[in-house]
Design brief:
DUF4054; Bacteriophage protein; two-stranded antiparallel sheet; alpha+beta; flat
């Protein structure tokens, strides 16, 4: 069950009630609880739901508009007419689309991949995945 006060404590970027009113955050929390139920998350379900809410709010922007996006390392810059470019390849996932729109989404995507991967067994110089037995 999504905990609004825990969310605001865990993600202080969304603590401003005038920008992120309770109704808006709670709606996203309810949706996240439905989309990211207990299985396969177990004890992580609450955190996963909070990441989903933070990502959704970030994608909507402060006024429900555009997102701040994911920042990478500076790959190019100029001074006259001020310009800067970022290389986000190290901070995003190929084919993650929507999840790459915020740092919260990137972390959520990583957790989704880990939950779906299942256990791995490391044996000597090789890694054996469950379906390889």
């Amino acid at each position: 069950m999504f905990d609004l006060s825990l969310f605001r404590d865990t993600f202080p970027a969304f603590a401003d009630l005038s920008v992120y009113p309770d109704a808006r955050v709670s709606f996203q929390g309810s949706l996240a609880d439905k989309l990211y139920g207990d299985d396969p998350w177990g004890d992580l379900q609450g955190y996963v739901a909070m990441l989903a809410v933070a990502h959704a709010l970030s994608m909507q922007g402060k006024s429900g508009g555009s997102s701040g996006g994911v920042k990478g390392v500076v790959s190019a810059k100029s001074v006259d007419r001020v310009s800067v470019s970022y290389d986000v390849s190290a901070t995003t996932y190929k084919d993650a689309a929507y999840f790459n729109g915020s740092p919260y989404g990137v972390e959520l995507y990583w957790l989704i991949q880990m939950a779906g991967a299942g256990p791995m067994h490391v044996m000597g110089n090789s890694t054996v995945l469950p379906w390889q037995f």
